[in-house]
Write a structure and sequence with these properties.
The chain is of the alpha/beta class. The protein is built from 3 helices and 7 strands, in the order βααβββαβββ. A hairpin with an 8-residue loop joins strand 2 and strand 3.
Length: 145
């Protein structure tokens, strides 16, 4: 039996970063708990000060298949390369012909760049482009393959 898991990303602006990753992954903010019209209504009910409302953000896979993501506000900034990163497999896998796969990768890179990501570098395999290393708006690396 597998263990259900989620991924937590430390960041400076959880709400803003969650919006980027919602767009990148097709994820969504989960609905507020039963009895509340919004997350803000629940925060008010909890007595959470408004200045703490952006201390965390959460996303889930609308299809219920992928892991959930949490974004937590931390005081320190990112300093070094991630030791863990996501691969966005938009090309369909290396079993897909390069002529089909690579335009898919480039289209996704363009879409994510427009959303605030930056290209770190393009990686090659066997003398031609294979995947693109990118960084999200706060500098967390990920790959588009």
């Amino acid at each position: 039996m597998s263990t259900k898991w989620s991924l937590t990303i430390d960041c400076a602006h959880p709400g803003k970063l969650a919006k980027f990753w919602a767009l990148a992954l097709g994820y969504a903010e989960p609905p507020p708990p039963a009895g509340f019209a919004s997350w803000e209504a629940q925060f008010i009910d909890w007595g959470l000060p408004e200045e703490e409302w952006d201390d965390g953000a959460y996303l889930s896979d609308p299809d219920g298949v992928g892991p959930s993501l949490s974004f937590l506000k931390v005081p320190e900034s990112k300093v070094v390369k991630n030791r863990l990163h996501l691969d966005l497999r938009v090309g369909g896998g290396r079993e897909i012909p390069w002529e089909t796969r690579w335009p898919r990768v480039l289209a996704e890179v363009e879409r994510l760049t427009a959303a605030g990501a930056t290209v770190v570098r393009e990686h090659e395999l066997n003398g031609r482009p294979d995947h693109v290393e990118m960084a999200d708006p706060e500098g967390h690396e990920f790959c588009v393959v």
